[in-house]
Amino acid sequence: MGAIKKIRNYKKSHSTKETIGWIKNAFLMKLRKMKNNKNDYKSLNIKDNENLLFKSNHKVFIFANVPFYDIGGGQRSSQLAKTFNKMGFPVYCIYALKSAESKIYNLEMPLCMHVNVKRISVDEVRKLMSKNDLAIFEAPVGDFASFLNVAKEKELKIVYENIDNWETSLGNEVFNKEVLDDLIKSSLFVVGSAKPLVKQLEGYMKELNVKKKALYLANAVDEELFSPLKGYSKPDDMVIGKKTLIYYGSLWGSWFDWDLITKLANKHPEYSFNMIGDTQHIVDFMKKLPENIHFLGLKKQADLPAYLEYSDYAMIPFKVDEIGEYVSPLKIFEYISMEKKVLCTKLPDVIGYPNTYTGNTYLEWEKYIEDNKSVDKVASKDFILHNNWRSRVTNIYKEAYGKEIEKCSKEFYNNISIIVYGENIESTNNCINSLISNNNRYNYDILVYSNDNEIKKKLEKEYKDKIVVVDKGNIKVKTDYLMFINNEKIVLHEYFLDPYLEVFSKKENVGAVGNYGYLIDDEQVVYPILDGYYMYPSVIARSDIHALDTDCIMTKKDIFEKIGYINEKKYNNIELSQKIKEKKGIYYCPYLGVANTFLENNNKNVKKSVK
C-alpha cells in the first residue's frame, strides 16, 4: 500500500490533527531507519539500553556470493537472510564479490553485519561465532577457506548450498576445488537448489568417498511481498501492449536467449516486452533490438509485484545449456505467486510447475499466447504454500538442529492457551487449521469464542476434541500463559511462537508481548505504529512503546486475572495492555510467525481502465 493511500485510509477515521501527528511519527521513524542504514558495516554499534532486548537465538552466518543489495535485493542469500531475521535469528552476512551493477540501492538490510570478505579479519569473525551457530556457504570461494576453518574450529553447524554450476563461466571468480571439497567434507548436510545440482553434489561426494544427506531445496518466494491480493498502481514507466510481457533479472550472459525474444517481438509488434534489469553490459546490443522491447532499468525487489500485476505473461528466456540446465529461477516462484502465466524454456527444474508453459522456440511461445488459457489460481496457491522462503528456512533449521528443537522448553510446553475470536466461519477455519498443523512443538490448547451460535455449532461438530468452544464471558484457562489471536490470522511455520517465548524467558518483568503497538502523545492521542517500529536486527523486542494491540498479544494468566479481564465480555485494545503495563512491562516483538489472510483487493477497476 502506498504512503498516500495509507494516509487517506487513516484520515477516514481520524481528525486532521491526529493524522498530522501520525505522519510526523512515521517520518521520524523513517529518519531513524535511514540514519542506521549503511551498505557495509561490521557492527550496528547499539548501546545497551534497558528498553531493548537482544536476540539470544543461534546466530546465522551467511557466506554469500554477492552483496545483499545485488539485483535489487532479490537473490537467494538475501531471501534466506530476510527470512531467518523474520523468524527471530541474528543474521551476519559476509560476501565475496562486489556488486558489478551500475545502480546500487540503499536497501534496509535486516542484518547484524554486512561486509565484504576482504574487509573483515578471521579473528573478528571468530569472536562472534559460538558452538552450534549455523554457517551457510553458497559458493566455494577461495577467500572463504579461512572462515570455514574457524567455523569448524568453533563447532558450528556448516551447510553448503550448491546454487549454480560453478564449473562453467559462472565460476570464473568463484570456483575453488579445494574449498569445494572441504565444504562438502565439513558440512552437516548439503543443499542443491535445482535437481541437476543435487546430482552434481552426489557426484562430488562419490569422488570424495563422503556420505552426506543432499537436500533438494529449490528457490522460493516471499509470499507476503508477492501477493496478488494487494492493490497496486500501474508503474509510470511500464509499457502496455495488446499483450504485455515482462522479464526481470540479469539481461546479460551467454545463457540469455535474446534470439527467442527478438523473433517473437518482430513477429508481433503489437506486443509489449518490458525488460527490467541492469543494461550496462548490453548498451550497444539494445540499439539493434525491435522497438517494442522496452528497457526499464534495475528495480528494487519490493517494486516488482506492481509490474507483474499489469502484465499478461512473465518470461524466463534462458537457454537450456550447461548453465541453464542447472538453474532454479528464483523469479518463477514470484511469477507464480502473483498468479501470472509463465513462458519459459524447457529448463528441467520448472517442468510441471503450475501455469508454466515451456518451449525453446518463439513459435511455441506464440502458440501459448494465442491459446490464452486461464490461470489456475488454486494450483498457484497450493504450489506457493510449499514453496515459500519460510518453508525453505524451516527445512534447513530442522535438518541442522533435529531433535534439539522438536519441543519448546518445559516452561511453555503444554502450558499455553491460544484464544481465537471467530465471526467468519471460513477465516476461522483457516486460522484453526494453521494452529493445529503447527502445534507439535508447543502442544497448546486452542479455545474459540464467537457471538454467532451457528458458527459455534459448526466448529464443535468439525473439530470435536481438537478445540474448545467457549463463551466470551466465561473463558476458563488451565495454562499459565494465554494468547489472543484474530481469526483473520494464519500461522506461517512451526516455530512461530519462539520469538515471544524468548522474550518471556529472558525477562522476569514481562507482562505481555505483542506484534502490533501504539505510541501515545502528551495529549493522549493514539498513533498506531506505521510499518513496524524500527527494530535493530540484533534486537528481539523493545519496551519503549505505550500500548499493544489485543490481537496476537500474549500474557500470563495470573496477570490477566489480577487486572480483572479474564471474564470480561469486551476487550479494549488500548485499555487491556495499559492495565497490564501497570503490573508488568509490555514488549513489542514483530517476529511472530503469523500473517493476515484478509487483504484488500481494490485494483481491478484501475487495471481495466489502464488496459
Task: Provide a brief overview of the structure.
With 611 residues, this protein is α/β, with parallel strands linked by helices. It contains 20 helices and 27 strands.
What integer is the average pLDDT?
89
Overall 3D form: globular
Order of strands, main sheet, comes to 4-3-2-5-6-7-8
Oligomeric state of this protein: single chain
Instruction: Give a quick account of the main beta sheet: strands, pairing sense, barrel closure.
Output: 7 strands, parallel
Sequence stretches where pLDDT stays below 50 over 5 or more residues: 32-37, 599-611
Radius of gyration: 25 Å
Number of helices: 20
Fourth CATH level, the homologous superfamily of the largest domain: Spore Coat Polysaccharide Biosynthesis Protein SpsA, Chain A
Helical content band: 25-40%
Q: Looking at CATH, which topology of the largest domain would you report?
A: Spore Coat Polysaccharide Biosynthesis Protein SpsA, Chain A
Structural class: alpha/beta
Could you please describe the fold and organization of this structure?
With about 600 residues, the chain is of the alpha/beta class. The chain folds into three domains: about 45-215, Glycogen Phosphorylase B (Rossmann fold, 3-Layer(aba) Sandwich), CATH 3.40.50.2000; about 245-385, Rossmann fold (3-Layer(aba) Sandwich); about 410-595, Alpha-Beta Complex (Spore Coat Polysaccharide Biosynthesis Protein SpsA, Chain A). It contains 20 helices and 27 strands. It has a seven-stranded parallel sheet with strand order 4-3-2-5-6-7-8, sandwiched between helices. It has a seven-stranded mixed sheet with strand order 17-16-15-18-25-20-26, sandwiched between helices. Strand 21 (about 515-520) and strand 22 form a beta hairpin. The longest helix has 20 residues, at about 15-35. The protein is globular. The chain starts with a helix and ends with a helix. Residues about 30-35 and about 600-610 have low confidence and may be disordered.
